[in-house]
Amino acid sequence: MNVSARPQKNAPGLLAHATRSALISLVLAVSSGLNAAPVSADTKVSALQASQYRTWITQMKTLPRGPFARLRWFCADGRVLPPKPYACGKRGGEQHGEWSAKTKKMRQSGFLIANVLADADAKSIAEHYSPDGELQAILIEQFLLNVDDGWILRKARFYRGAFQIESEERVGNQILTRLTAANQPIAERYALILEAVKNLPSTRGDQQLLSTVRSSAVAIQNQVPRFGTLRNKIHGKLDARDAQRVREFARDYQGRSVHKQMLTLAANIDSIFAFERISKVVADLAQSQPAIFAALAQHWSAAKTSSQQYQVLASASKKLREQIEQSPKNRIDRFNQIAQLEQIVFAKGRQLLASPDTLTRMSRADLLNLLAASHDMLYGVGLLTEAELQQADSSIQQAQKSADKELTLAAYQRLLKDLDRVPVWAERRLQFFFQGQVQRFSQIEPKAHDYIPDRLRGSPLLIYTAVLNQLNKDSSRLSGISHRFFKAPISRGFRVLNPGVARGLLLTPQMLAAKRTPPEGLILVVPETLPDLPAVTGLLTAFEGNQLSHVQLLARNLGVPNVVVGPQLLAKLKPHYGQRIELLASAGGVVEVRQLAANEAINQTSAGQQKSAVTITVDADKLDLTQTLARSTNELDSNDSGVSVGPKAAKVAQLSKQFPGQVSPGLAIPFGTFRKLLDDNQHASGVSMFEWIRSQYKTLNTLHGTAKTQARRKMLSELRSWFMTVKLDPVFVADLKRKMRREFGPDGSYGVFVRSDTNVEDLPGFTGAGLNLTVTNAVGFDVILHAIREVWASPFSELAFGWRQARMNQPEHVYTAILLHKSVASDKSGVLVTTDVFSHQPDKLTVVLNEGVSGGVDGLSAQSVLIDKASAHVDLHTSATAPYKTVLLKTGGATQVPASGKAQQLSAGNVKDLITFSNNVGQWFSDDPHAIADVEFGFLNEQFVLFQIRPLVESKVSSLDARLTRLDQALHKSAHKTVDLKRPTE
């Protein structure tokens, strides 16, 4: 999937006035639901085409032949013949349905519907992995067939000969055999393989009983709408008594075809909860691997309560996964056993929760043990990686050790905050494999959106969240605090990424794109903290994305509250879209969301916001605009920062001197080049471009409303066009070409990142990270010159100008220097902050890392860890689940290729390198000896490389705003309370 035929760009980021075009990527990201990751341009079709395809899908559901035109023999020699006995002769072939013209058209457009395994290439499906590959399409279509009464095969199921079950199972077996072969990356693709084992037609066992129950309930509701209440019960809180409930419901439908479906559903529910069935599975497992599971049957017999049985089965699941990853022997059988255990554990968990007061009678310690057992089970079914399992278990173990002495309420709350990440990890693991095809299918069938939620509801995660919710309620009662969600107190569902206060109109990107002008205040609801966001006062996100991305760091700097909202609360938030609201998020993690009264102004700011407001003041006298030719970073030092060049170039120069061999060479185009271009060229009005810009700013200050918006847009458009067409000084061009050859090598043999490096970034109180343009890996002198023009023009984009203008008092003195930094094709890259950004402990490092280049700055789901500088111990916060990684092209630009899926990106050697660097970084910022460093780095062949360093600047609004301080008062007062884990929750 090629990102760009031309060099890839990092577009201007977060806090800038939005235009409709700037919102396109956001609208795509959430066009089908806020829990979705952005839709790749490769998977997106036009709205008109998608509408046509949806119509075709609806038609296929009613056609006797569904997606097929007719039956045909598909011969091994390539012939396609009408159906008759032995049509293909000795060489043989397969008889099945032939796709209709509409089906073929949709498949050509990337919608892999009407999959016939008999005609599929098992080797290609299993071994040519892609995040939105054919295997995932097959599995999602199977889901739709189950939950939507046959979907496009609703009538075609009765079209004799359309499928040959023996052929489907034979190819299904071939796919599974190849997926589980010794040379396959089992650990990296474990969850995908298990889904295939559970859902592909195969002769190796049917493990779909629970899935069948859930899909049958949906199919019955489609025929009998009043079954909806019972269907919801089965999906959300299935228990053994539901079988009898279904039978009682079925009495009213005797004599109708749906009556048999209802009785079959009831029988399947009985099977799920049958003790005899469970005991047989346990006995078979113990017999199949006596060396490993010799004690399993004994433990099962000794387990008297549902809780004990749950823990025994979960432990077996963990051991099974370990065996699967260690040995290729009988892997398909082992996966089938895992699938059986998942169903059984789900049933035992539902039995455990069947009584409303079961959890309240259990001690906190017993509830934590249940969570620990669930970790084993979630790991066994592929929803947790080994690193996530170890981290989650470690959190519980540390709390249990503390409890031997005295567990404080603060420690209890930290534990639960850590465990709150587990459901997010599980969901992101499935999204890593399936989100691409979910988004693709959702364009033609909205029910595809239910794929991942359905899988999670049918997993041990349902039990896990019920137990965790009980403990969170307990914590809230002990502390005396709770979040408030439109006046209602709630115990969980929020996670604060950035504290702050915001007022604004609550909108989704689609709603914002429909507005002619952006609202005065905007609180945006987005899937995650994406790299390109319009001007916002607050953010509500479904996932946290990347804690150290440019967008996230800028939000921290400007005091923009950013809060992760759980899926249940997101659903409850929808009725408030379009309302004026206030969002408060405290440093302690307490959140209040309320609707503003009619007499409350959106633009009213608190005293804390006023005290912490950022103002950009340019010291024009400090600037040296006499230097107009490019300079090597070897010639620069810290004294040049903000004087002749920007802070990026100056810091690269410093890094090069202090860490020789770890920084690629660079050339800086100084501020003076930019100013000379403006002074030497006249505007059509007869004055220099610089004087014209100055006069335009004065005019803008006299205008208001629509007139100001129109004048601003006209000015910015004219400036951007001017930079792209103005004739460059031949002396500058010739000098640049000569110096580039000297610094980088022959033209075309290298690439450079063309980075904006203005005099209004990395200032005390303001970072400006990621606001202006970077062109990635420009190759060839003419391409680089074009990129330089684009970067010069970038501060005059609607986005960059919008946020800057509101904070500047001398906007005409914005000067854009440029850093040409030789490209490094990092295997993995990220961001390091020399403190714990969550609790500000200076003895720890915060690191985010992803595969490929730009891994830590672009907002993708990265691995996020805390590193203890003394012990090198690593605490995991999030895993890298971006399905693609960015790699550089020798011809220029970048492309995206599938990420490996490796759970652990940081090696022990990487950790050592990061600690060594942080210990040697010294006092980098002379104007602020206590500054925290924000460092961009990479690893190439496991060698540590450095790209950039800047001060981390954070808003002080959370400490200065009285209301935020009050939200945390109860936390501070109760922090030293003790919690007795041996007692039940309160």
Structure explained in plain terms:
This is Phosphoenolpyruvate synthase. With 986 residues, the protein is an alpha+beta fold. The chain folds into seven domains: 31-204, no CATH class; 207-271, no CATH class; 274-354, no CATH class; 357-371 and 388-479, no CATH class; 488-614 and 963-978, Glucose Oxidase, domain 1 (3-Layer(bba) Sandwich); 621-822, Dna Ligase, domain 1 (2-Layer Sandwich); 828-954, ATP-grasp fold, B domain (D-amino Acid Aminotransferase, Chain A, domain 1, 2-Layer Sandwich), CATH 3.30.470. It has a nine-stranded mixed sheet with strand order 7-6-14-13-9-10-11-12-8. Strands 1-18-17-19-16-15 form a six-stranded antiparallel sheet, sandwiched between helices. Strand 11 (538-543), helix 25 (550-558) and strand 12 (562-565) form a beta-alpha-beta unit. Helix 5 packs across helix 7, helix 7 (190-199) crosses helix 16 (331-353) and helix 19 (386-405) runs antiparallel to helix 20 (409-419). The longest helix has 23 residues, at 331-353. The radius of gyration is 30 Å and the shape is globular. The protein starts with 7 loop residues before the first strand and ends in a 7-residue tail after the last strand. Residues 1-41 and 608-612 have low confidence and may be disordered.
